[in-house]
Specification:
- The complex is a heterodimer of chains A (878) and B (176).
- Chain A is an alpha/beta fold.
- Chain A folds into 4 domains: 89 residues, Ubiquitin-like (UB roll); 238 residues, Rossmann fold (3-Layer(aba) Sandwich); 172 residues, Dimethylsulfoxide Reductase, domain 2 (3-Layer(aba) Sandwich), CATH 3.40.228.10; 120 residues, Barwin-like endoglucanases.
- Chain A contains 27 helices and 36 strands.
- In chain A, helix 8 runs parallel beside helix 22 and helix 13 runs parallel beside helix 17.
- With 176 residues, chain B is of the alpha+beta class.
- Chain B has 2 domains: 57 residues, Orthogonal Bundle (Arc Repressor Mutant, subunit A); 85 residues, 3-Layer(aba) Sandwich (Glutaredoxin).
- Chain B is elongated and about 50 Å long.
- The chains are: A alpha/beta (878), B alpha+beta (176).
- Chains A and B meet through helix 4 and strand 7 of A and helix 3 and helix 4 of B.
């Protein structure tokens, strides 16, 4: 520890601390431009000058380390003089066009000039007048306003690891921008825009459309993926103008991805539903809640009284836990049906079921902080940067800062591939075989693989040398984190693979060692929360077994109601409708037409329903069939809480008034129950929240803010740590469960669908669907900003294949399977597994889904949809 | 800066670039030397070559471009076969370097820093070549020409033109 004084105030800090942090610890802020607490200090802007009293020298606070007995002055005349001179120099060429600058009003340079600068300057020079770089549709670079602090370049290097922009030229001619005069081509996270202390980088989507002080700010949580990013929504006249992060706020610590930052226009798309609709003469016509709800209620009441399981329900995994909790209670208690399911059935259930039976919890044992500290990170079937951006950032940081060994087991290269020690390219649907072989090899104790297992690994598409390296790293590693994602969960072998992975982890004692564990990346913002609340056929709230009478009785006693015992998920719902047993379906934001193939068959099945109630933001293929279409409030228009992949429970806050007559889903269900004369004991959403937190104290809101915030002029403000419920699963209780899980038999291994990488006929590939970083689900296709960034789906094909056929990006190919054919444009890329092509799922419309087999396949153990990879022929169109 | 002339742009295969990078052990620290080697061989550093070097060395393109634009020794556009480095330092200036430059401009129809249309010459006034005793002087592809006058300069230009037209046609390779 080192003792020093800052402005006469004594403070003791660890050796190696910078003056800036020491001062902040003493409660004394120092202004900064180029400093950002998440990055290594650069010391380039010279505005954090402080005086050392003894030596009478001014030094830079952000890069100078403290020394014993140092006497620091942060506000002496000499310091003020230094800062003023600095500002004079910084403003020498600055255009001072604040009146028309988007940054005006929230500009650290402006604020600092106000605080330290003067109106006069001792220097004379020309004002910069270079044209702006308008090549990018997303960001505008204005080199005239730039003070060359380099924060944007560093955030792109150190936080995002994307390296899209850099310094160009030298001296007075230096500008910031993308290389080679090209247009900006990056992940469009907009972090550079966020950290820029002037208006040098501005948001082109909302250029000249706002003044910062006229907007209302609302802190809320993004529900697009499981990262649970905290963000600030700026609104004016009940419309979202822009979204930003705030330095230090939330688990994302001030970063958000392209979908979070720019993807807010879908909810204010003109095609949003404004009022409830009902069907009259084959057409949906607008009506009022007062007129429509009693009709639905009466129909539901008569159906549910006629027996158990007459009504089924589907719920979107983007809805908050309050809605999920109410939904399952409404379904089970009010409608007497256990036919309910969520988006998680599309893949996550393959992992959730084994995970709950092994650990008893859906919360992870590790979070992003553990990833940063891990020795070995194994990413299985996930593209973290696209699926859960902040976890992607953590992985990149772990490799860059701590030299963690990263292994990517995936079919094709993703953005983290270049950081991986090895990329093990697995063909889709071979994950279980791979993990069981890996488990065997790990327990055999030898480092080198036998020639037989080498061959078997090769048969799955994996390079044996890469597997050997993984084995030796896994053996040596003290802190190992596995990350699983979309491709892994949605694999035909997803269920078995999850069980194998958990068994492997148990055998290697990873559940017991601090810092080791599994981080599951769900696809939506509240997948974990929806399952925890029991909005699925398998589980009651608290993950109690819905088929177990004893566990059911816990809730029966609590609610004073008999709960239905049978029921099922999506598979059972569809077959129940087909068999005429299920007479009604309520869908809260789930449209099966967007993810199930053979739309003709589903249309036929659903047309048997006597009541179809769809609650959604937009009209879609399912709502065209609906008897009642009800407008829902978007996540920006309502309150609630969502559970992130890391296990944080974070609030949504209404940033704008509900669209038209739209209502939150929970409000609609409460009104319906009241209309049916079976009112549930909650007056409103907040009563629902308190009930959820009362029953599940460990689900009380929790978050992780960085230990600092930045003030108006960039000064560091340390925030006070707050006590909050733990967000991770408890290791003791997990360990107790795991012991019995290890004893139980593993499910029989499903043989991989005969896929052999080496023996593929020409033009024959396996087609998979992948998630794009620029979109989330299909709703973002209605977002003008995101569609500007990525407005079309391209089939990713191996570059070598395209080159051989002289096909360039945008050339059309004919994709055919025994079930259908379609022409799509291609994008030749490097780093695809042999024999694989993939297509962004967002653009996979009904015509595209027709490539998949007509009959629906579901995993026999998890009920998750399977058959999401298929053999295709890709032929150039001549 | 000069405009690129498609006839004069050189085609460099990826393998050639890889080979040069390998000679320097693919070391990140050798990036300036690698770029110098490439420029020596091809006269300038084309965009796609820059990207390839970055890929080989594991340096992002944005950083490569930063290095390239930081040093004024690197050129991003093709240059003429003969680089006319005319000294315009103090001594040469006093002895009429300005007239020399004007004469070249007039004779070759180029501006400072530009290539001639036939890609034979690039006019590049430099501040001082350290041979003030020879003022006014110029340096053309490493050869020094001292005590010049406008007429002498024109003569040299004609000589160079004749030399190159008598040579068999080959790819532009100014530094050879």
């Amino acid at each position: 520890m080192v003792k020093l004084t800052v402005n006469g105030k004594e403070v003791e800090v660890p050796a190696g601390t910078t003056i800036l942090h020491a001062a902040s610890a003493a409660g004394i802020p120092i202004p900064t431009f180029c400093y950002n607490p998440r990055m290594d200090p650069a010391g380039s802007c010279r505005i954090c000058a402080v005086e050392l009293e003894d030596s009478k020298r001014t030094v830079m606070g952000c890069i100078t380390q403290v020394a014993e007995g140092m006497k620091v002055l942060t506000e002496s005349p000499k310091v003020h003089e230094a800062r003023k001179t600095n500002l004079e120099l910084l403003l020498l060429h600055h255009p001072l066009d604040c009146p028309v600058c988007d940054c005006g009003g929230e500009c650290p340079l402006q604020n600092m000039s106000f605080a330290y600068g003067g109106a006069d300057s001792r220097f004379e020079s020309h004002r910069n007048d270079e044209p702006e770089d308008m090549k990018s549709e997303v960001l505008v670079f204005n080199s005239n306003r730039c003070i060359l602090c380099g924060k944007c370049v560093r955030v792109c290097d150190e936080i995002q690891d994307v390296h899209a922009i850099g310094f160009i030229n030298r001296g007075f001619d230096t500008v910031i921008g993308p290389p080679l005069g090209k247009k900006l081509d990056c992940e469009f996270c907009g972090d550079c825009l966020e950290v820029c202390p002037t208006g040098a980088i501005t948001d082109r989507f909302v250029r000249y459309q706002f003044r910062p002080w006229q907007m209302e700010k609302t802190e809320t949580t993004c529900t697009s993926c499981g990262s649970g990013c905290r963000m600030v929504v700026d609104t004016e006249n009940e419309a979202i103008v822009r979204i930003s992060a705030r330095e230090g706020l939330g688990p994302n610590e001030g970063s958000i991805c392209v979908v979070g930052r720019f993807g807010f226009n879908a909810v204010q798309n003109k095609s949003r539903l404004e009022s409830p609709h009902f069907k009259r003469a084959q057409r949906l016509v607008p009506g009022s809640w007062e007129e429509i709800l009693p009709k639905i209620a009466a129909h539901l009441a008569s159906l549910s009284s006629s027996g158990e399981g007459r009504v089924a329900g589907l719920i979107s995994s983007q809805l908050p836990i309050e809605d999920a909790f109410l939904f399952q209670r409404f379904m089970r208690q009010t409608l007497n049906s256990n036919f309910l399911d969520s988006d998680a059935r599309q893949g996550l259930m393959n992992m959730a079921i084994p995970l709950v039976s092994a650990t008893g919890s859906l919360r992870p044992l590790v979070d992003n902080q553990d990833i940063i500290a891990a020795d070995t990170i194994v990413v299985l079937g996930a593209d973290p940067a696209a699926e859960s951006n902040i976890t992607g950032l953590a992985i990149k940081k772990a490799v860059r800062k701590n030299k963690a060994a990263l292994y990517l087991v995936h079919g094709h290269d993703v953005s983290i591939s270049t950081r991986a020690r090895e990329v093990i390219r697995l063909l889709p649907g071979t994950e279980e075989s791979f993990l069981s072989m890996l488990r065997e090899a790990l327990s055999s104790g030898t480092t080198a693989l036998s020639s037989e297992s080498r061959q078997r690994f090769q048969g799955l598409g994996a390079t044996p040398e890469a597997v050997e390296r993984l084995l030796s790293d896994l053996r040596a590693s003290k802190r190992t984190v596995f990350v699983t994602g979309r491709r892994f969960h949605r694999s035909d072998q997803g269920f078995g693979a999850s069980a194998q992975l958990l068994r492997l982890m148990a055998e290697r004692n990873m559940f017991a060692s601090e810092g080791s564990g599994l981080l599951v990346l769900p696809e939506s913002g509240n997948d974990l929360g929806v399952l925890m609340m029991g909005a699925t056929a398998e589980w009651l709230p608290g993950l109690l077994d819905a088929t177990n009478a004893e566990q059911r009785s816990v809730w029966e006693n609590h609610w004073q109601a008999k709960l239905p015992s049978g029921g099922g998920g999506l598979r059972e719902i569809l077959s129940g409708i087909e068999a005429g047993k299920i007479r009604a379906l309520i869908s809260l934001g789930v449209d099966p037409f967007t993810f199930l193939p053979d739309t003709g068959h589903i249309r036929k099945t659903l047309s048997k329903l006597e009541l179809l109630v769809v609650v959604d933001l937009f009209q879609g293929p399912l709502s065209d069939m609906a008897h009642y279409l009800l407008p829902a409030a978007s996540p920006f228009e309502r309150a609630g809480h969502v559970v992130s992949a890391e296990g944080f429970v974070q609030p949504l806050a209404p940033a704008m008034a509900p669209w038209g007559l739209a209502l939150p889903e929970s409000e609609i269900l409460l009104r319906l129950a009241r209309q049916m004369g079976r009112a549930l004991p909650f007056d409103d959403l907040s009563a629902l929240s308190s009930e959820v937190f009362r029953i599940f104290p460990d689900l009380r809101p929790s978050t992780r803010n960085a230990p600092y915030f930045q003030g108006k002029t960039g000064e560091i403000l340390l925030s006070l740590p707050r006590v909050q419920p733990p967000h991770k699963a408890q290791r003791e209780s997990v360990l107790a469960r795991v012991a019995s899980f290890v004893k139980a038999d593993l499910p029989a291994t499903v043989a991989p669908a005969a896929l052999n990488a080496t023996e593929r006929p020409e033009n024959s590939f396996v087609l998979t669907l992948s998630k794009s970083i620029n979109h989330a689900g299909t709703r973002t296709l209605l977002d003008s900003n995101l569609m500007t960034i990525e407005g079309e789906g391209f089939l990713k094909v191996p570059r070598s294949w395209a080159r051989k056929r002289k096909l360039k990006k945008g050339a059309c190919v004919l994709l055919s399977t025994p079930h259908g054919r379609i022409s799509v444009p291609i994008d030749p890329v490097a780093g695809l597994a042999d024999g694989e092509v993939h297509y962004p799922l967002h653009f996979a419309d009904a015509r595209f889904l027709a490539l998949f087999p007509a009959h629906l396949n579901f995993n026999s153990q998890s009920g998750a949809q399977s058959g999401q990879a298929i053999d295709v022929t890709v032929e150039p169109i001549v | 800066m000069a405009h690129s002339d498609s006839a004069a742009t050189v085609h460099i295969t990826d393998e050639e670039i890889d080979h040069i990078c390998e000679e320097f052990g693919n070391r990140e620290g050798a990036v300036v030397q690698i770029l110098q080697t490439i420029q020596e061989k091809y006269g300038y550093v084309p965009a796609e070559v820059l990207e390839r070097v970055g890929d080989d060395l594991g340096i992002p393109h944005s950083k490569m471009f930063g290095v390239l634009t930081f040093y004024s020794q690197f050129y991003r556009e093709p240059r003429g076969k003969f680089i006319l480095k005319v000294c315009v330092g103090t001594a040469c200036h006093v002895r009429g370097a300005g007239l020399l430059v004007d004469k070249i401009k007039e004779n070759l129809h180029v501006e400072e820093g530009e290539n001639t249309e036939d890609m034979l010459f690039t006019l590049e006034p430099v501040s001082c070549l350290g041979s003030c005793a020879l003022a006014p002087m110029a340096m053309i592809n490493g050869n020094t020409y001292g005590k010049l006058s406008g007429d002498k300069m024109v003569e040299i230009l004609h000589q160079l033109k004749d030399e190159s037209s008598s040579e068999p046609v080959s790819e532009a390779n100014p530094a050879s």
